[in-house]
Amino acid sequence: MSREPDTRYTQDRELSWLRFNQRVLEEGLDARIPLMERLNFAAIFTRNLDEFFMVRVSRLLDLNLMKGSCRDSRTGLTPAQQLAAVLKAAVPLYRQRDKLLARLGRALRDCGIAVLRPGELDGRDRRRLERWFRDELRPILSPMVVDARHPFPHLPSKSLALALVLRRGRRRQFGLVLLPRAVPPCLFLDGPGLRCVLTEQIALAWAASLFPGYQTDEACVISVTRSADLPPENEEAELGEDFRQHMKKVLKKRARLAPVRLEIQGTAGDGMVAFLCRRLGLCRAQVFRCRAPLVLDFAAELARRLPPEQAAALCYPPHIPRWPAGLDRGQPVLPQVLRRDVLLRYPYHSMDPFLRLIREAGRDPKVVAIRLTVYRVAPQSRLLALLADAAENGKEVTVLVELRARFDEQNNIAWAERLEEAGCTVLYGCAACKVHAKLCLITRRDRGRIQYITQVGTGNYNEKTARQYADLCLMTAHPGIGADAALFFQNMATSNLRGGYRWLLASPGALKRRLLALIDRETARARAGREARIFLKVNALTDRQIIDRLVRAGQAGVEVVMNIRGICCLRPGLPGLTSHIHVFSLVGRWLEHARIYVFGAGRDARIYLSSADLMTRNTERRSELACPVLDEGIRRQVLRYVELLCRDNVKARRMGPDGRYVPVSRRPDAPPLDAQAAMLAQAAREEPRPRPA
Which helix (H) or strand (E) holds 134? Predict the structure, then answer.
């Protein structure tokens, strides 16, 4: 008989994620952050919550519909109980967002920036709105009354629509107006300051004119969120079918998946809500009322239109990524990496050294092959354009494109087609799991000898996010790591997920086994009375087996410190259970995204950079990699990075035994330390100066 899991020191992953997103929202309350950036944090919170409902709430709904009594291994809750807890916990977050946006709106008006409602305008401004509605918006709208001859329409996920209760005589009917995605998020007004009116509010103000002969009793803006989580069995292509063509069909199916949430802004009585719930197949707990706009796309548009002097005052100062110390930007990168390892710390360092390495490899007559994994890339990717150029230049270029990267499928399909046209060999990963590893391999033949340059990253090959996410990029000519990388690409081409490697740790399989062994190594050291430490920096910790092994290590006396940005299902600081385990999170200007594992201390420490979070999906159901840091100089850089994170007393928050976060306390005599600001200053100091002519 299997033993029931111990839930005394674990918590629900979905509630933990909501607490992370609450920390994102609370950045909008921090008066030390420029005003427009605080508005941006509210927009990030909103997008995060959208994806949470599309994926995680959708998964809970599916599990709840399945027969059986499956229970969560961390809480013992059924899917129905988890779903109820999640929907209940989301309600105060909406209230908190409403209050924050109202506060930010008042502060913006003090700066001459206003998001107005039509009712606040008169005279020339009012006439401008009416004219724009009549000439630009109304011709592309399709109002409809819902009845036997006009069935309830399909509402695309996260699109905006107007819902109305109409009356003609004694008869009441429901009306709908879908707002096309092509319309701009807002209309900017002439005159002093920066003023705009949201498109949905303009449509709402003149909605009655769309239904002549009816009186309008109620009118509101609504948005439906649909599942984006296709069942795994539907992801497999039919025998002989090209997987890229299969994924195109999958994306069409996704557009019509079931609703999981309804958001309402404006006046909507119980009758309208009940009608919408029936038509959409939702319960009342899945309906969320808001005073704030349902979509915050206008925030980016406001920031783009700020005059320079206001942008300087209301936004973060512009950041120019630097070149790392020890890398001469006046010399070719490829021979420098052959001589010594190089570490790029995004966004403090530029991605340009890596891009220049690829450009040089594409032109180097001694380079015979370039191979790369792709999970998420920019729509206008300089990196993939360089690979296409290399293929056209006669290099053997192999790109493993993961077409199942959620929300990036269409972009990856387009790039796969372009790369094939350029002559690249394109692989689509493995049927059994997504390929999430971040690996690039350059193979050279010099004087009859094979040379490898391997790049291993903790984040995606995306030039845009490299300026927004805190990630690490290691470039090394270590022959053993290069041989492992070559074997990895061979294994991916033959769908061999269980291949063995000498230096790299790969999942599924060896990565988790090795991590558990390293945790046990520190546990044994602690029991022997020796110094024992574990530091883990990941985005999420949910893997039950790793959690239990960390708890056992802490109980043996191992000092366990974890910097976990998002989900953490382990509750630290519980007397007698997890008192030696410390968890902190850091939400700042840049998204902390790097994964770092450190086991031990000093020269004996085992340090790995990885693409893998400590989630069961990463350790058991994805192809991931972790690479050891062997160069002493790079090891010192990584450990200094870790030290700065652990010393942060400005942005860091500590998790308590109840799973909630509180700001890290600072001694009265301790100076404030913002780790991200400190790393930014450090990168500015270390950038090498050009050599004198």
Answer: none
Is the pTM for the entire model greater than 0.85?
yes
Give the residue ranges of DSSP H helices in 529-569: 544-555
The CB density around residue 382, as the number of other CB atoms within 10 Å, is: 16
What span, in angstroms and rounded, lies between the C-alpha atoms of 503 and 497? 16
- Active-site residues, by number, are 436
**DSSP label of 352:** H
Q: Domains plus CATH for the chain?
A: 13-314 (3.30.1840.10), 333-498 (3.30.870.10), 506-686 (3.30.870.10)
Are the C-beta atoms of 229 and 58 separated by less than 8 Å?
yes
Spacing of C-alpha 525 from chain mean position:
37
In angstroms, what CA-CA distances link 566 with 27, 49, 277, 661?
A: 15, 13, 32, 11
Q: What is the H or E stretch that residue 387 is in?
A: helix 382-392
Q: Pick the closest to residue 534 from 485, 583, 465 (CA basis).
A: 583
Residues in CB range of 270: below 8 A, 6 or more apart = none
215 membership: H or E segment, kind and range: strand 215-226
Distances, alpha carbon 122 to alpha carbons 45, 210, 446, 468, 565, in Å: 34, 21, 76, 41, 47
Residue type at position 450 = I
pLDDT digits (tens, 9 = 90+) for 618-657: 999 999 999 999 999 999 999 999 999 999 999 999 999 9
- Look up residue 281 and give its two tokens: 């197949």
Give the model confidence (pLDDT) of 230-268 as tens digits.
654 444 555 446 777 878 877 777 778 899 999 999 989
